[in-house]
Specification:
91 residues, single chain, two-stranded parallel sheet, 7 strands, 3-stranded parallel β-sheet, mainly beta
Length: 91
């Protein structure tokens, strides 16, 4: 299962709280290119099958907090061969 799958930006989204999705494997599709330009807070909790969060093509320039709890199968947060920049990250 995937939360976001596609190529359109969600420019006004500021908070994401994903919790108790037992079959979630990807937060964003590997082939998506979202521009979460206003997203400040991302909370992922109790998603035991979650493997990947966002691809390199997804931008998160305003992300301040990233909380990932009880996602035991997580392989990588940013699936990319490049360095990922999070200029606003505080926690």
């Amino acid at each position: 299962d995937i939360v976001f799958d596609g190529t359109e930006g969600l420019t006004k989204l500021r908070n994401v709280h994903v919790c108790n999705l037992k079959t979630l494997a990807y937060f964003c599709s590997e082939h998506s290119s979202f521009a979460f330009s206003s997203l400040e807070h991302m909370h992922l909790e109790d998603c035991p099958k979650l493997e990947y969060v966002v691809p390199h093509s997804t931008t998160l320039p305003s992300l301040k907090t990233l909380d990932i709890l009880f996602c035991y199968n997580l392989k990588t947060i940013f699936f990319s061969n490049y360095t990922y920049h999070l200029p606003s990250l505080q926690r």
